[in-house]
Amino acid sequence: MAALAGSAAADRLLAGLRETGALLEGHFLLSSGRHAGRYVQCARLLQHPERSAAACADLAGLIRADRGEERPFDLVVGPAMGAVTLAYELARALGVRGLFAERVAGGGFALRRGFSVAPGERVLVAEDVVTTGRSVGEVLELLADLGAGEVAVASLVNRSGGDAPFGGTPYYRLADLEVPSWPAAECPLCADPGTGPAVKPGSRPEPE
Ligand code: ZN
Q1: pTM for this model (two decimals)
Q2: What is the mean pLDDT of residues 13-29?
Q3: Residues surrounding ion ligand 1 at CB below 5 Å
Q4: CATH of domain 3-191
């Protein structure tokens, strides 16, 4: 199964994430209460259209090279809200249409707003960062229900810790990133006298 991370493209992405404050290094208090040494919020990079386009061009290039086709999928779909703009920009890079799926009351995702996937259409599921992969997994279930053809997943960042977070479904990403976190009582950064206290990621000055 394809599980590709491009090295030059990974370097470009990680540099862009740092330059836009989308990847912060330090001592962070997460909303879960855990502490971490890194924080990733791809929306901070994706808010810049030219950077979003460049990252999606790299991702599309990786996918085309692996598939050996100019247009290896018929459409891109991303789970809202996080992947709405990414799915759109990746669709533009691949020259296909871009959709988003919305979480529905009672669980799972649905296509609304007149979006549809025809039986047999080849679908690329886009996500900015794959951590647990839960939302993507639910979109894959939706696509199976709709009778989609071949499916694959693409993300900017893989922080799942594995090569195949979606089992046999091919997975493309630009960069792998570890973001270790700990319960506050076990945090090694708290134990380090040279490190300041944990802060919420948005509470310190952001790089330009
Ligand atoms: Zn700590």
Answers
A1: 0.89
A2: 95
A3: 35, 187, 189-190, 198
A4: 3.40.50.2020
